[in-house]
Amino acid sequence: MSEARIDKWMWAVRIFKTRTIAAEACKKGRISINGGLAKAARTVKPGDIIQVRKPPVTYSFKVLQAIEKRIGAKLVTEMMENVTTPDQYELLEMSRISGFIDRAKGAGRPTKKDRRTLEEFTTPEFMDDFDFEFDFEEE
């Protein structure tokens, strides 16, 4: 098979969890093929560059094989190549860190993992070196 629908391909190579979500992303204009917006029925072929916008990051993938049947996670590297630029990953890391400082109102209570990361981020480094237990002599 030399061509495949974009929504089926993105689902098959595990970019999206379901084909419905992949089709919705196309409908919302978050998917582009070789620089042009793509509808769900648009076909992809080997060599195409697909850009997937999952705010705040735009991921880029190169199609190596066009498939429509879902495959195991270990085989994904044979079907596509991740060509996302490093600056996009820096953007992701920055948004992940800043997400703890400016928590959205109504986002709920922080999880235990959120709390530990927040404490690690806000605790001054010199605080680890002190032992706050003092010996007081009673008279």
Describe this entry's structure for a reader.
- With 139 residues, this protein is an alpha+beta fold.
- It folds into two domains: 1-84, RNA-binding S4 domain (Structural Genomics Hypothetical 15.5 Kd Protein In mrcA-pckA Intergenic Region, Chain A, Roll), CATH 3.10.290; 85-127, no CATH class.
- Helix content is 34%, strand content 18%.
- The chain has five helices and seven strands; from the N terminus they run E-H-H-E-E-E-E-E-H-E-H-H.
- The protein has helices spanning 6-12, 19-27, 76-79, 86-101, 112-122, and strands at residues 4-5, 31-33, 36-37, 43-44, 49-54, 57-63, 80-82.
- The chain has a five-stranded antiparallel β-sheet with strand order 3-2-5-6-7. The chain has a two-stranded antiparallel ribbon with strand order 1-4.
- A hairpin with a 2-residue loop joins strand 5 (49-54) and strand 6.
- It is elongated and about 80 Å long.
What would the average pLDDT be, to the nearest integer? Answer: 83
Output the number of helix runs. 5
CATH class of the largest domain: Alpha Beta
CATH homologous superfamily classification of the largest domain? RNA-binding S4 domain
Query: Approximately how much beta-strand content do the residues carry?
Result: 15-25%
Shape: elongated
| Secondary-structure element series | EHHEEEEEHEHH
Strand order of the largest sheet: 3-2-5-6-7
Q: Which short descriptors sum up this protein?
A:
7 strands; HSP15; 5-stranded antiparallel β-sheet; 2 domains; 139 residues; Structural Genomics Hypothetical 15.5 Kd Protein In mrcA-pckA Intergenic Region, Chain A; single chain; alpha+beta; two-stranded antiparallel ribbon
